[in-house]
């Protein structure tokens, strides 16, 4: 690591500002800009670490969530996990390290840096810093292990929770295990976890039921999925927007667009407003079963319901309209989408341009190409050339 002492460091002036009370946000802006401009080079990444060390007693910095999250994200992006560890390990030893909330933040930051083993070690060593564990820090660690798909480590930690650490599981803990079992494809084990949590006096909530429903529906077990839906309502657990979307997704996969649409009506009756995911599923469902006019009706009805189409809905509409050879409407929606900087897939644009050439709408094709050229980030050179070839072939009649 380069010598960055106040006497010899070319950055001593900046360090002096910090020590003199220079705003934590201002100096962090300088440091993060250094990483951005220099691609996370060793010396500039090291400067960030030294600035953090020099300000270990600066409460404004230590308590500043943004500064830590941004530092970790940038250092991890520069593949400097060694420096991420250096910063976080130093701050674990501060007086704030005796607060569980502060340690939970460090566990989460290790997760963001894709350093799950360090997150787990932090949880295991909490007593070394005089910090009492509760189910909150356990759940934070479980979340990191789950995101890293370290299922064996997560299960081991759960087994140790009560006997080793004196931590009793709550609904969040059990829901994490349910989700983990579902992700592993162990659906019956996931269901048994729900039964076990009831035995332990922890009531399954809407997240428990919805997670299980999604897994059973995804694997084609409609009877179990429907049974969970009914059990959830019977237990006084009202379905949420996510719960309804899970059922609608299953119906669409089974080509039951009309039933999905009926379920949307029931959502409104229950006081739940469908979101963009709901509408996208129903629109796609009607297209898939050949009810194209109904798909367009649902798209138009969105605006009257106060829900604006998002990028995925535009993609769905343009894709299926091209398949239906409704290129005029596909063009209008594609243009509207592109002007919002939402670009359909390369294949969809390709099909639209070919269709516009077939119906002699060269001018519309050029409008699409103009928007393609303005895209940020830009399309690849090969993709742009393929689009241009379609237009040139259309002009020559080839």
From TrEMBL:
Record's signal peptide? none
What is the protein named? Pentacotripeptide-repeat region of PRORP domain-containing protein
Which superkingdom is the protein from? Eukaryota
TM region positions: none
Q: Which organism is it from?
A: Triticum urartu
Please verify whether the record's keywords include Transcription regulation: no
* Coiled-coil parts of chain: none
Pfam families per the UniProt record, alphabetical: PPR (PF01535), PPR_2 (PF13041)
Give the UniProt keywords, A-Z.
Repeat, Transit peptide
Q: Which InterPro entries does UniProt cross-reference here?
A: PPR-containing_protein (IPR050667), PPR_rpt (IPR002885), TPR-like_helical_dom_sf (IPR011990)
Q: Which NCBIfam families match?
A: PPR
Spell out the family assignment given in the record's similarity comment. Belongs to the PPR family. P subfamily.
């Amino acid at each position: 690591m380069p010598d960055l002492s106040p006497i010899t460091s070319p950055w001593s002036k900046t360090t002096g500002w910090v020590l003199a009370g220079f705003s934590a946000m201002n100096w962090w802006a300088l440091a993060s800009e250094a990483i951005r401009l220099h691609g996370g080079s060793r010396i500039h990444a090291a400067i960030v670490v030294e600035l953090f060390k020099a300000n270990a007693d600066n409460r404004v910095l230590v308590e500043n969530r943004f500064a830590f999250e941004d530092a970790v994200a940038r250092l991890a992006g520069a593949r400097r996990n060694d420096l991420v560890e250096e910063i976080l390990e130093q701050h674990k030893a501060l007086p704030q390290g005796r607060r569980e909330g502060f340690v939970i933040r460090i566990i989460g930051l290790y997760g963001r840096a894709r350093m799950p083993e360090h997150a787990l070690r932090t949880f295991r060593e909490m007593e070394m810093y005089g910090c009492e564990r509760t189910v909150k820090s356990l759940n934070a660690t479980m979340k990191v292990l789950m995101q890293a798909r370290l299922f064996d480590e997560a299960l081991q930690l759960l087994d140790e929770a009560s006997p080793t650490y004196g931590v009793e599981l709550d609904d969040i803990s059990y829901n994490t295990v349910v989700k983990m079992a579902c992700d592993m494809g162990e659906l019956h084990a996931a269901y048994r976890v729900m039964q076990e949590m009831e035995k332990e006096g922890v009531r399954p909530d809407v997240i428990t039921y919805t997670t299980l429903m999604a897994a059973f529906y995804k694997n084609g077990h409609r009877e179990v999925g429907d049974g969970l839906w009914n059990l959830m309502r019977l237990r006084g657990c009202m379905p949420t927007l996510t719960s309804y979307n899970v059922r609608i997704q299953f119906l669409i996969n089974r080509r039951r667009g009309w039933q999905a649409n009926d379920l949307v009506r029931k959502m409104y009756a229950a006081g739940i407003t469908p979101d963009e995911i709901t509408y996208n599923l129903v629109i796609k469902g009607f297209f898939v079963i050949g009810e194209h006019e109904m798909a367009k009706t649902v798209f138009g009805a969105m605006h009257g319901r106060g829900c604006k189409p998002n990028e995925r809905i535009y993609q769905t509409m343009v894709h299926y309209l091209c398949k239906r050879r409704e290129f005029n409407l596909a063009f209008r929606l594609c243009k509207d989408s592109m002007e919002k900087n939402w670009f359909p897939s390369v294949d969809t644009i390709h099909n639209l341009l070919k269709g516009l050439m077939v119906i002699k709408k060269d001018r519309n094709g050029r409008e699409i190409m103009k928007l393609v050229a303005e895209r940020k980030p830009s399309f690849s050179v090969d993709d742009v050339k393929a689009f241009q070839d379609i237009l040139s072939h259309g002009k020559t009649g080839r």
